[in-house]
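Subject: sequence -> C-alpha cells, single chain

Hey, anyone have a minute? Need the predicted structure for the following. Not urgent.
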Amino acid sequence: MVRSLFKGFYCNPTYLNLKNESEILTTLITDKASIIPVHFLNMTCYVYTGKEIKELFISSDMLGFRFGNFVITKKRCIYKLKKKKKK
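Reply:
Had a minute. Here:
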C-alpha cells in the first residue's frame, strides 16, 4: 500500500501525543498501519494483532516502518511427511 507523498506519513494522532515511557507502556496499539514515530525509540510497546497482544521492542532500524511489519498474525504452515505403505 503506497500513500501519496503530499499527504505525508500516516500515524494515529494518539500515538504522536505519547511522550513518557509509562504512557507508551499503558497504551495498547491497535492500529498496525501506523508508522512508528521517533519518540518510541528504545521502548517496549504492546501491539494487538486481532487475537492476542504481543510485546514489541522498538530499535532504530524499525523507525519509519509500520507496526504491522514486525508483528506476525498468521500461523506457520508445517508439512508432515507421509509414511510409505508396506506391500
